[in-house]
Amino acid sequence: QVQLVESGGGLVQAGGSLRLSCAASGFTFSSYVMAWYRQVLGNERELVAAITTSGGRTNYADSVKGRFTISRDNAKNTVYLQMNSLKPDDTAVYYCNAGGLGPEYDYWGQGTQVTVSS
User: Fold this and answer.
1) How far is CA 109 from each of CA 5, 28, 57, rounded to the nearest angstrom?
2) Does residue 79 contact residue 59 with C-beta atoms inside 8 Å?
3) Helix (H, G, I), strand (E, B) or coil at 117
4) Fewer Cβ atoms within 10 A, N terminus or C terminus of the chain?
């Protein structure tokens, strides 16, 4: 079955770094646009970063441009989010998403908590 398993979240001080990973299985990873979203309790889930199937194009939320980098390894069926210069406002649950092939092929991970202390 389809699985997206995030890891790498945790508690970090402001200015620090974390690297999130999302390991995918159960579908053809290289055919999917991959993305990271985040959500703060009570708020809507927001797009953080996305990457095309080959990794040739990326896009980022304005709030993370220049600090976060999304990448993927199609041989390992894994997508990453390198987060540098973290701020308390980055505190959220981060979710991995596979999509781009229509609503019936839209998959989510269980989320990983990122907490940035000031």
Assistant:
1) 6, 16, 22
2) no
3) strand
4) N
